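REQUEST ID: PR-0412
SUBMITTED BY: lab tech R.K.
PRIORITY: routine
TASK: structure prediction, single protein chain
INPUT:
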Amino acid sequence: LDLQFENDNNLYFYTGGGENTEYITNASTLLHNWIMIAVSYSGGTNGFRNIYWNGRLAKGFRGAVSASPKTTQFNIGESLVFPGRYFQGKIDAVAIWKRPLKPREIKAIYDAAQRSVKD
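STATUS: complete
OUTPUT:
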């Protein structure tokens, strides 16, 4: 699994075998803004790979998604595929669930975070 901004300022969510879903961002909104990004996926022939931006589904894919076990180490802020490539920004409140969250659950997390950001 890999979630990364690439040099084109777009967000890519990779699962097994290099398959990915790409969200084309508006680069002007990336600086000086708090943004919540969530991803959710389920492997198999009827799988999905979704990217959520500020609580809403921004880009999704339905179809065959690799369900192979993930054996690489978990890492935040630096690409394991491209060592030395670091995230240029701030990361806060990383969370991982054992199951894909439902869209309403992701929206509820975003809404709760928005209340605390405004305080």
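NOTES: The mean pLDDT is 88.
REVIEWED BY: pending
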